Amino acid sequence: MSLVLDPAAQDLLFREAHTANTFTDEPVTEEQVRAIYDLVKYGPTAFNQTPLRVTLVRSPEARERLVRHMAEGNRPKTATAPLVAILAADNEFHEELPALFPAFPAAKDAFFAERPARERSAALNSALQAAYFIVGVRAAGLAAGPMTGFDFEGVRKEFLDDDHTPLMVVNIGRPGPDASYPRSPRLAYEDVITTV
After folding, report:
1. Which residues fall within 8 angstroms of residue 5, CB to CB, at 6 or more apart?
2. Which of 116, 51, 112 is nearest to 87 (CA)?
3. What is the dihedral of CA 8, 135, 101, 168, to 10 degrees?
């Protein structure tokens, strides 16, 4: 059976998607970010939990503070991207569960009363949401440059609090000249998929 998604959309979201390393100076608007969120908020997670938190770094002062925490090779990209987002996991996400999962409001206390259980679940489900976010950036016709090369504790102290765990920093915008490397190989179906 073939995919039902239009081939052009398949290309936009997946086949032509690359990590962007350079961007034009065209701004990324609040309306674009809102449209991205309004699309990707429907991506499935366990118990409909929503632990992802996004900090948009727009001011020059905040950008300067963030760049200090980036790995040396990532600093120029983060300094010049039209928009930078810090994606983090909210380890207190369970407080929203009674409203977000009304089918089982007791899930908050039944499964997530202890902090270690919340941290494990927040890490997994916010990573899912981060992937949806990146696909949403692509759906908006923009490019994303997700990075984990930064001082996690420094970013947490600078922009978050003890209840939030940084996941990645994502540069966002229209791709600039030579924005990405040539497509790298991927594993074959047989190397990934096993039937038992």
Report:
1. 13
2. 51
3. 170
Classify residue 26 by its DSSP letter: P
- End-to-end CA, the chain: 21
- Distance from C-alpha of 34 to C-alpha of 51, rounded to nearest angstrom: 18
Q: What is the pLDDT of residues 110-125, one digit of tens each?
A: 999 999 999 999 999 9
Q: Is the dihedral of CA 96, 102, 106, 107 positive or negative?
A: negative
Low-confidence ranges of the chain (pLDDT < 50): none
Q: How far is CA 159 from the centre of its chain?
A: 16
> pLDDT for 35-51, tens place per residue?
999 999 999 999 999 99
Please give the model's pTM, rounded to 2 decimal places.
0.95
